[in-house]
Design a protein that fits this description.
single chain; about 180 residues; Rossmann fold; six-stranded mixed β-sheet; two-stranded antiparallel ribbon; 4 helices; globular; binds guanosine-5'-monophosphate
Length: about 180
């Protein structure tokens, strides 16, 4: 069994077809809600890049895309609680309708910090679209406007989400065997 391959995934939590159907549904909602506007979709690197790239192809209104990278888990599986900007936006958010696109909201600490930071830059509106929501792990209250799936408290990989940079390329979301990361 080689690290980063589907063989080391114990359970598929969300299949490729379930993901695609949900991403299309979220994109339709966004297209309806932002009709007549040009939302700026801010993808949070690296985990959200697969979700964002699928999402924008289902959106049928004009959108702009930019990326931010903040520090989170490093190569382990526990949040440090410290959020640092590693890469900032290129496009100004002032006066823009901003949608933060995230792979997963876990404790909510990362998203809370990001929202504080972005709202200080005076966007016209600020919303969050997350593919996954690990609700039971939440430590701070954050408003999530678009949620793909609520998932149980397990460490998941695939569809952009990694363990030590592995697994981002899997087209589904799965739970790796514990021995992989313990
Ligand atoms: P939070 O600040 O909400 O605790 O953490 C959010 C970040 O932690 C996510 O953007 C993601 O990078 C990482 N994270 C949280 N849960 C998981 C998980 O189950 N799998 C992976 N690969 N990353 C996770």
């Amino acid at each position: 069994m080689e690290l980063g391959t589907a063989d080391t995934v114990e359970r598929v939590l969300i299949s490729e077809s379930e993901l695609q159907a949900k991403v299309a549904e979220l994109a339709n909602q966004i297209s309806r809600d932002y009709e007549g506007k040009i939302p700026l979709l801010v993808g949070i690197l690296k985990g959200a890049f697969v979700f964002l790239s699928d999402l924008i192809r289902y959106v049928n209104i004009p959108v702009h895309v930019d990326f931010m990278q903040v520090s989170s888990y490093g190569s382990g599986t526990e949040s440090s609680g410290i959020v640092k900007i590693l890469k900032d936006l290129d496009i100004s958010v002032e006066g823009r309708h901003v949608i933060v696109v995230e792979d997963i909201v876990d404790t909510g600490v990362t998203m809370q910090h990001l929202l504080e930071l972005l709202s200080a830059r005076k966007p016209a509106s600020l919303a969050v679209c997350t593919l996954l929501d690990k609700k039971e792990r939440r430590l701070v209250d954050v408003n999530l406007n678009y949620v793909g799936f609520e998932i149980p408290n397990a460490f998941v990989v695939g569809y952009g989400l990694d363990y030590a940079e592995y697994y981002r390329n899997l087209p589904f979301i799965g739970i790796p065997y514990k021995k992989v990361y313990e």
